[in-house]
Each structure stands twice: as structure tokens, then as C-alpha cells.
Amino acid sequence: MADNHEQFIEFNTNVKLDDNKKNELKKNRDALRKKIRKYFDDKKPNEVKPKFSAQGSFMMHTIVNPIPTEETDDDGNVKKLYPYDLDDGVYFIDNLNNRKAQSTYHNWIYDAVKDHTSKGAIKKNTCVRVLYADGHDIDLPIYFKEIKTGEEKSIPQLAHKSEGYIDSDPREFYKWFNNESNDQLKRIVRYLKAWRDKQNKSYSTKLPSGLVLTILATNDYSENDRDDIGFRDTLKKIKATIDANYECKRPTTKKDEDLLEKYSESHFKERLSKLIDAGDKAIAESNSKEGCKKWQKYLGDRFLCSNVKDEPKGMSNSYSEPALFNVNAGSA
Q: Which residues contact 124 (CB under 8 A, 6 or more apart)?
């Protein structure tokens, strides 16, 4: 049996967002918050001031380095772009009778940030997106939260420009995930996201979002001392779940929302089956390098096999030199 646990741990190191990019995201997020606060101080002094709450994979520590794209400028120079992002929720907390139209809040936030970068900003149905020169962006989804007295709590409502106000609580979701997760599950979520990015580069039909993959992996997580086996077994449980019922219900507000319905069932199942088959064959290999190559075909070049010895497992360690990383790598 091939053992590629160490290769998965190194893969995790290669795909998780590095500290420099994390710090850059935090710096850019904080600069936008400052810009928005100043806009309200200067332009809307009589309106309720927005509050902020970061959300999404950045907060859950499952954000991954994207596979870079390339852009050619007018002089023919090729520049690599890195399309990763951060979501920073903008919350207007006020009495219900003071709630404005969704478009009003969107216009205010857009006006506050439209000139913040050389790339500017764009309006989307759920957010204002601020664009940066290196390809990353910061999404500013906008919420209204009603002030209620006593012990009654109100649910935040996403200001969707075309669908109205929709109950939505991203903070509730990442609290759910952080309560359910551990370091290995966070790595498995990163592996799934990296696999998705690789597949989406090769096929026009897109695989489910990182949010969907996170929910599926959390619901069907299979713990194992080895990440290659834990990942393969989690994939098998996910496949069994969606074979029985092709849906993915959000575990928090809005709980009746099926997040899988807009994604091709046949494509997702086909790509998932091929990955599972590759994992089965990789683990059954007696040669760790051959096993590694089977994983690499679907996970991409960031899953490194170059330093795995071309020998049956048991004759030597998987690596030709001692590994320079901790196989119990944390989730940050």
C-alpha cells in the first residue's frame, strides 16, 4: 500500500494562502473600512454608520492560493494575476422603519470605494466588488439588521438588488464550521478547493463552489491518521450522499436553500468518481511514487512527486531526503 500522507501535507502548504497574502488582504480590508467610515462622516453624517464583519473562507482558515491567470498589457508584457478574494460584510444596524432600499445602500458603498484602487469597483447584485491590480478583490456584501429590544434577536438580511432583502447570517455559518472542524478537516477542504480549481481550468462546466464543498466535506468527514486515506474516504462518503439525494442544504440561515441545484449533477458526479477512482488506485499501489502520480493527475502540479523515491513502500521513506515540514501541520 502506497503512503502519500506526506505529499498531501506538503500540498496543503503549497495551496493554502500564504502569510504575505493574508496580511495584504487584512491591510486592504482595513483601508476600505477606513474609507467607508470617512465617507459616512463626510457625506452622510445623519445616517447610521455601518459596521463590519469579515466572513467566508478567510475567517474559516480554508482560503487557498488560486491557480494564477495571465494578462497581457498594451506593451505585450505578460503579468500573472491571482484571483483570490476576501468577503467583508457591511452591516447597517437600525430600526426597521429606517431601512432604505437595497440600491441606496449599494450606491452609498460604491460611491465610498469606487476610486480606492486603480482598477476601481463594480456593482453586483449582492455586493460591491473592489478590484486590485494583482487580480485579487474584496467583496463588500451589504446587510441590514433590525434593532430589537429585550432578548429577541434579529436575523441579518442581505440587501440583494434584484431579489430584495434575504435572511442571511454568514457569522452563524463560520461559527458552525469552526465548531465542527479540526485541522485535518480544514486541510481536506483545501484539497477539495484546489482540486476544484484544477478541474475548472480544464472544463467549461464548473464544479460546485467552495461553500458547497465545505458543507459536504464537513457533513461527511472521515477522520484518519493519514490524509490520503482520510481524503479518499471523505470523497466516498460525499459521493454516497449525493447519489442518494443530489442536494446540499445550508446548515444555517437560510436553511431551506439548496446550494447544489445550480450545478450540473452529471459533471460533479463524474469528476468526483474519477478522483475517487484515482485515490483507490493510488492507495492500492505498492510504489509510493506511482501512487503520487495518480493523485497528481487530478490535483495538479502543486501536488509534488519529484522527490518521492521510486521504490515500493517499506523499502525506504517516501521522500529521498527528510521532509522539512511538520506532518501535523496546523490549519492557519
A: 139
